Fold this sequence. Notes:
32% strand, Alpha-Beta Plaits, Pseudouridine synthase, Structural Genomics Hypothetical 15.5 Kd Protein In mrcA-pckA Intergenic Region, Chain A, 4-stranded antiparallel sheet, alpha+beta, 275 residues
Amino acid sequence: MPLRFEKHIEVTSNELIAVDLLAQETGISKQKVKLIMQKGAVWVTKGKKTQRLRRAKKALRQGETVHVYYDKSVLDMAPAEPELIADEGHYSVWNKPYGLLSQGSKWGDHCTITRWAEQHLKPQRVSFVVHRLDRAANGLIIIAHEKNAAAALSKLFQQREVEKHYQIWVHGRFSEQATVDNPICVDSNIDDRTAVSYFSLIKYDVTQDRSLLEVTIDTGRKHQIRRHSAELGFPVVGDRLHGKEGDKEDLQLQAYYISFKCPYSQTQKTFNLLR
Length: 275
């Protein structure tokens, strides 16, 4: 069997069961097909709607199309375990560890924070991404459990009504002039979109020649903190993409603080991993 393939199967009868059809068309055992389905690598299209198909015994209908996205490297991944910080019912707040994804792909979603929440929260609820945190980063992330909650929380982020603070370890000795009251500002577009970040020194570790920085951002572009920090000449420790060549550590970037007005209780919610 190839290590990676995709297959699109037209359903020609109303009497077909998902696991049976998939086993027949792919040559994969029914037991393994069930596992692949549970990990989010099987989809079904009905009309204009395509969604993940997890139920092995699902009765398929003529005219539907079943899609299999098999990638052994993705399916073999084991999810890192996040920590539940607060369950607010409509949404939950988690401490996402290094390696756990914010969002899945067509090849699977079993290593995402959203899927973990769906499988482990009680009572069980669907999960929606509100904002993202890089796979290599760790820290606080909010997951919505209703479409209305996802929309309300996303609006807070879009209107910049969510206060977020990060800490990063960078290579080198950062300027002692950069304080919380007088941070260094980087206003540099990312992918042709406005991006503004603020960096201030917390402490310098002379033995390892690295600095601990406090970071806040006005925008949330992809890899913004990592790219802006590297632009200043102080790459984040463990950054494989924008950092120091040969760096073997995990990415030293933590989203440690988040504060916002709850759209349901109208009270200020503040979460701080350093307290």
